[in-house]
Design brief:
about 950 residues; 30 helices; alpha/beta; five-stranded parallel sheet
């Protein structure tokens, strides 16, 4: 489906160009229009063909030919537009002659593509694959993997490392707690050990004792067939004669479901394991659930109020929440470095002590285990492979090509085969986004803001009605996270993903698939000792994207004859100074670039010829040494994203780039005028100064959703500034005001901005009064360095829809805060950090009834904590030996304590959701007692106690 999606994006873009660049197509418009229609016709076959190409090489070749034809059409049209644009600088006679020549050449090339498409269509029929759209089937490898797993549901692993505590937790959840029927889900990426843990729990002595009469294990798989699953269960829980089994085989699916329901209802309690469920719809189909009501159990698995359980394994968090919204999924974690080595040692060295082998084998083993990044399946396969041959030569061979060995080891259960099932299951619109992850270096922490903008610039994000493309891209990202194909590194206080990474084996899968689709060439770490030639034979001539990880100078010196149609060029982890002349190769060789990311490259200047890259959509220049941009940047009329910071000044040419959507220009050194009110497609504007902003007519920026204004503002008149913000009433959703140290935020009334839901203010404010007029739909508010003398809570607690409130360093200078009864009716997150004078927060009964997360400094005393019955998470700006010792010696039932990593650190205290009212009150009372004991111990007279 990746090809279908990539072709779809390309075809859509050709259609857009026919509209937007109409003036360039005089004389060839008819031919290009017909080509566009032919390509659209081909799309009708691609989705089903894409599904089948894994199993049929003929279909694979046919799909590849369509993809190359579309790429070629895109290349021809892009080059034609580029040449037409460049001709505008020529004299009239020369321009007229070359126009005719170019149109003739393009016409001939388009004709050739159309003939090729006709040939492709004819051969599709000749090969007998004209009915590729009829029916669906499970791939042979997936079917064989399903058969393999179904054949051993009771075969428990004898070597299990790192799952002992996890198993104990699950056993307690299965045999204790709520007497209602609950679905407990094990969630994690392929190969992380979900099935292994489920088998260990299924065969646990306590579980066998608690469910003595009715237990069953059923394997579901991608090819979910409820009738087969029901039969698997029935055969395990019913003692049936041969005649009865034959009779049941004749029953319809709904009849079998009804029979299973009745049998389960007659039992005291039951345990059913459903291994490998792939989608919410599969669960609904299995449970025969016809309602979206979270309490709707369906008509197959009854609730007799006897403590029955369903244990479900899945790769997707969405499946878990759909199966039982009131049950917290058990999210599988990768193994630690030590546990990874323990598992490998027991697999590779069997019963023999690893220390009895040569140290070089141990050293090689440790290096290979590190490459597995804690993925149990990879470690088990690696250990099993190496246990067969203990020679240094064999281990070195595996070490030098570990990914290839793990991909094939175990055949159908090889790491890549297992992970590939997740790729196959991706919907078509997510596959290009997944393939794009192959461009990032190993273990690279990816900024999600940047990732989403790259996806948009590549054309991977479809425009949705009444939803910005960035919001749609974020939905795509969260889908990949929920499918356990992307790992979350850092989230914001309101749980939005800020940074992410990709597991090494997931990245290898993305690279493998990207090469199959000619999605990119080679991820380059240029080594002059390995590649002494200056040729570009390193890259595929069909390469559309390249990412460079080191040695910029060498890459810049290569003659890139073979990749003239490169669309994306990204540089990573490059330091040092770069001369302006070293960037000339980009415009010389890559004339149809759409994405150019030079972030982190030590460039001090950008050549003016960059203005010739008229197809450029994304230009990343953040964290460079750049202080000035050339005026020719205004020629980039298709540019959608410009991301740069720390410029001395921004050239006043942005007004020419009318397709700009995302403009990041933070931390300008100078405050020169900047016209932007002609850029009416602008959705995000970050870094414009107060003085620059006030000189523009903001009423023209009808699409602006996110605005960050910074710098000096003492000369900005309050009413004028307030009116400029009010003119954004139809679009503005997020506003960030950051005043320089010596100036104050202008007075501002925002009640006329009904869509404004996020407000950040950093800078001095005279006072916070009713007249400040916060928008009533405000859901997130952050105040910092506001130097307020009066308690802000009496004003802020009246905001009816506020969900997140962050009061940071210097926002309030007082000693006490008071939240009255019924204050903050919807608040879920309260952060009070860096308030150096605050010693008391008094919360009246009935205040903040929905508060779930509270963050504060250790010296602040909280009155009324035990009334926050929905509080499940506390972040406390303190973590020491004292707090750990006190925790171990205090009854803090229901809560767990972990350390917050990072320079500031602290304690993270959390409890499980879903406790009864009485249990929640008891838990809060114990937490309040613990915090009070710790506060007393850390009173100034007892500071010495914290110096352990």
């Amino acid at each position: 489906m990746a090809t279908e999606a990539l072709v779809s994006f390309a075809v859509e873009r050709i259609g857009e160009m026919l509209i937007q660049e109409a003036s360039f197509f005089k004389g060839v418009r008819g031919q290009v229009d017909r080509l566009h229609k032919d390509l659209r016709a081909m799309q009708c076959f691609l989705e089903e063909a894409d599904k089948k190409q894994e199993e049929d090489s003929r279909v694979c070749n046919w799909v590849s030919e369509i993809r190359e034809a579309v790429y070629e059409a895109e290349d021809i049209i892009d080059m034609f537009i580029l040449n037409a644009q460049l001709l505008r600088t020529h004299s009239f006679p020369e321009r007229a002659f070359k126009k005719l020549t170019n149109r003739y050449k393009v016409g001939k090339k388009v004709e050739a593509i159309q003939l090729g498409l006709q040939d492709i269509s004819n051969r599709r029929e000749a090969l007998g694959i004209k009915n590729i759209g009829e029916g669906t089937s499970t791939s042979r490898s997936a079917q064989m993997l399903q058969d393999l797993r179904r054949s051993t549901p009771h075969a428990e692993e004898h070597v299990v490392v790192g799952l002992e505590n996890e198993a104990d937790k699950l056993v307690n959840r299965l045999i204790g707690g709520d007497q209602r029927r609950r679905v407990i889900s094990l969630v994690g990426m392929g190969g992380i050990g979900k099935t292994t843990l489920a088998k260990k729990v299924y065969n646990h002595t306590k579980v066998l004792k608690h469910f003595p009469d009715c237990r069953a294990w059923a394997y579901v798989s991608q090819d979910c067939r409820p009738r087969d699953v029901y039969m698997q269960i029935i055969k395990q829980i019913c003692t049936s004669t041969k005649e009865q089994v034959e009779m049941m085989e004749k029953l319809q699916e709904h009849e079998l479901g009804a029979f299973l329901h009745e049998h389960l209802k007659d039992n005291n309690r039951y345990l059913i394991v459903l291994d490998d469920v792939w989608s919410p719809s599969d669960w609904s189909c299995l449970a025969k659930r016809s309602s979206n009501d979270p309490d709707c159990l369906g008509s197959v698995f009854p609730d007799g109020g006897k403590g029955s359980r369903i244990l479900l394994t899945t790769r997707y968090k969405e499946v878990a929440s759909h199966a039982d919204v009131r049950s917290i999924p058990h999210e599988m974690q990768l193994l630690s470095k030590q546990k990874s080595w323990d598992l490998f040692r027991r697999k590779a060295f069997l019963d023999i002590d690893a220390e009895s082998y040569l140290p070089d084998l141990k050293e090689l083993g440790e290096k290979m285990v590190d490459k597995c990044n804690g993925l149990p399946l990879a470690i088990v396969l690696l250990g099993g492979l190496l246990s067969k041959n203990m020679s240094h030569i064999e281990w070195r061979k595996v070490h030098d090509n570990i990914n290839a060995y793990l991909a094939k080891e175990g055949s159908l259960t090889g790491v890549m085969t297992v992970l590939n099932l997740s790729y196959i299951d991706l919907p078509s619109y997510l596959k290009p986004c997944f393939l794009h992850l192959s461009l990032f270096p190993e273990d690279y922490v990816i900024s999600t803001r940047k990732l989403l903008l790259l996806w948009i610039s590549e054309g991977f994000v479809l425009q949705q009605d009444r939803q910005s493309m960035k919001d749609t891209a974020e939905i795509y990202l969260n889908e990949l996270i929920n499918r356990n194909l992307i790992q979350v590194v850092r989230t914001s206080v309101n749980a939005r993903v800020m940074e992410c990474r990709v597991h090494d084996f997931i990245r290898e899968l993305a690279i493998e698939k990207a090469k199959e689709h000619n999605f990119f060439g080679t991820n380059i770490v240029v080594d002059p000792h390995l590649f002494p030639s200056t040729s570009s034979s390193l890259f595929s001539s069909k390469s559309r994207r390249q990412s460079i990880y080191s040695d910029f100078e060498r890459y810049a010196s290569i003659e890139h004859y073979s990749t003239p149609y490169l669309r994306s060029l990204l540089f990573f982890n490059l330091g040092g100074i770069c001369r302006i002349s070293q960037l000339d190769f980009i415009t010389k060789w890559f004339k149809v670039l759409r994405v150019l990311d030079l972030e982190g490259l030590g460039i001090e200047n950008v050549p003016s010829v960059i203005g010739e890259l008229i197809h450029l959509r994304y230009l990343g220049l953040r964290h460079t040494r750049l202080k000035m941009l050339p005026l020719s940047i205004g020629n980039l009329r298709n540019l959608q994203t410009l991301d740069i910071n720390n410029l001395k000044r921004v050239p006043d040419v942005i007004w020419k780039i009318t397709n700009m959507r995302y403009l990041y220009i933070e931390e300008q050194e100078e405050d020169d005028p900047l016209k932007i009110d002609t850029v009416q497609n602008l959705q995000i504007l970050s870094g414009i100064t107060f003085n620059q902003w006030i000189r523009n007519n903001s009423s023209k920026l009808t699409c602006l959703e996110k605005l960050k204004i910074e710098g000096r503002c003492e000369l900005v008149e309050g009413v004028e500034f307030s009116n400029s913000i009010a003119k954004l009433h139809s679009s503005l959703k997020s506003l960030y005001l950051k005043a320089s140290d010596e100036s104050s935020i202008p007075s501002l009334a925002m009640s006329s901005c009904p869509h404004l839901c996020k407000l950040d203010i950093k800078g001095r404010m005279e006072k916070l009064t009713e007249t400040f007029q916060f928008p009533r739909n405000l859901s997130q508010l952050t105040l910092e360095a506001c130097t307020l003398d009066c308690d802000p809570m009496p004003i802020l607690e009246k905001l009816p829809k506020l969900l997140t409130l962050r009061l940071r360093a210097g926002s309030y200078l007082g000693k006490e805060m008071h939240v009255s009864a019924n204050g903050f009716p919807q608040l879920k997150i309260l952060q009070l950090l860096g308030l150096s004078e605050l010693v008391l927060l008094n919360i009246e009964k009935g205040a903040m009834p929905w508060l779930m997360q509270l963050q504060f400094d250790f010296k602040t005393e909280i009155f009324g904590l035990n009334e926050l019955l929905n509080l499940v998470e506390v972040k406390y700006r303190s973590y020491s030996l004292l707090i750990r010792l006190l925790w171990m010696n205090t009854d803090v039932s229901f809560w767990s304590l972990t350390r917050i990593a990072g320079t500031k650190g602290g304690s993270h205290i959390c409890r499980q959701k879903g406790l009864t009212l009485a249990s929640s009150r008891q838990a809060l009372e114990r937490l309040a007692d613990f915090l009070e004991q710790y506060r007393r111990l850390t009173h100034p007279c007892n500071w010495a106690l914290t110096m352990f």
